[in-house]
User: What shape does this take?
Amino acid sequence: MTDRPESERHLTAYARSLGIHVDGEEDGTPVLAVDFSSVIEGRPGAFHGGATSGLLETAGYAALRARLEQEGRDPQLKPINITVQFLSAGKQKRTYAMGRITRLGRRNANVSVEAWQDDRNRPIATAIMNILMADRKT
Assistant: This one.
């Protein structure tokens, strides 16, 4: 048993090591956040691209997992591909990310994700994720 909040039980060790946490939710979809720190700094004063990608990927899986739980499903999630677009450098401030499911089938899901800082209408990065949902072996 862990001391993590129920909303963060699906965060990976990698996500937790970066400081990614659930900041809230919108319509049942988790909104994730990470505060700027030396752990995620790339060039001086800016988010590392890998940390930004990790936040986007984690938010995409969190959105999908939340929807699947609402439907009573628990498949194993396997990435088919993830495409990240870096739109502007992340500054020394809290960064948010949220995924939106664009297609949910029986075996595949497509998720779009946005990361932003001050203005949600000005994302710093986006991602498109294609995910295979495999039945768990019992």
